[in-house]
């Protein structure tokens, strides 16, 4: 390997054999995410055929200045650890993200990218290599030099470290049937009935929305567990929240919503009303947790004025501080 090689590949240039790329610049020689310990680079290899073969959802351009790239992990829930963590922290580590099309043999250089500073990644739902549905991390990549006039300040990204719902420590409230109980994990594989009037609702779209909700709900509960606290579910006769927990002497109660462009306004309005009602009944800190960052900054401003903590998976690292400021 050449010591401190100067990067000399140009976007749109001749393909290079992956072996030759690694011989010169270092990096892991297999897999889609390839951090180099010898040069300040992380190589990302995208290939639709290889994605399907190895249990990844499709890497794709969704806009001229936005490429979505599936994270590492062929089976089971993906987490922002290991190589996924290296992508998440590439700016802090001084690493360049360099995207290539192709996995093996000749690969084509598509240029240098960086994580979107507004929404670095989101969680999606897809089949693993074993055929089992699971969560996947989808990184949102911007080509270096894209126009940033409309970019808002970045939020701290999440660790997405997960645990189990067994053995968590923390105070558990006692009382009658209205008292919250130990957390019951949401079903991320829910399938709705198909016995509906034709065209009244798209059942596949309904399933995707319910799965996104369940995924976000479990991610929040796992974050609570990661802080050595005890996530709670509603009691039989109590408010029908999604997740709650005690943080020191205060209860935090959360309503979870999945949002898409076509339903974002309705979901956020509804979620704020619901969580304020739950918080009033339980004398708790209200948290509205959505699966994607809202499209417009005004929702964060509105939530702050209403006294609601608004959060999503990519800002979990800062969520504890947001709650403490309440």
Description:
- 25% of the residues lie in helices and 25% in strands.
- It has 326 residues and is an alpha+beta fold.
- The chain has two domains: 16-143, SRA-YDG (PUA domain-like, Roll), CATH 2.30.280.10; 181-324, Type II restriction endonuclease, HindIII (Restriction Endonuclease, 3-Layer(aba) Sandwich), CATH 3.40.91.
- The strands form three sheets. Strands 1, 2, 3, 4, 5, 6, 7, 8 and 9 form a nine-stranded mixed β-sheet that branches.
- Strand 4 and strand 5 (66-70) form a beta hairpin.
Salient structural properties:
elongated, about 325 residues, PUA domain-like, nine-stranded mixed β-sheet, alpha+beta, Restriction Endonuclease, 2 domains, 7 helices, four-stranded mixed β-sheet
CATH homology group of the largest domain: Type II restriction endonuclease, HindIII
How much helicity do the residues have? 10-25%
CATH topology of the largest domain: Restriction Endonuclease
Low-confidence stretches: 148-175, 194-201
The mean pLDDT is 83
How many H/I helical runs?
Answer: 7
What's the end-to-end separation, in Å?
53 Å
Q: Which structural class do you get from the secondary structure elements?
A: alpha+beta
Count of extended strands = 15
CATH architecture of the largest domain: 3-Layer(aba) Sandwich
Strand content: 15-25%
- Counted up, domains total 2
N-to-C series of helices and strands: EHEEHEEHEEEEEHEEEHEHEH
CATH class type of the largest domain: Alpha Beta
Shape: elongated
Multimerization state: single chain
The Cα radius of gyration reads 22 Å
Largest sheet descriptor:
9 strands, mixed
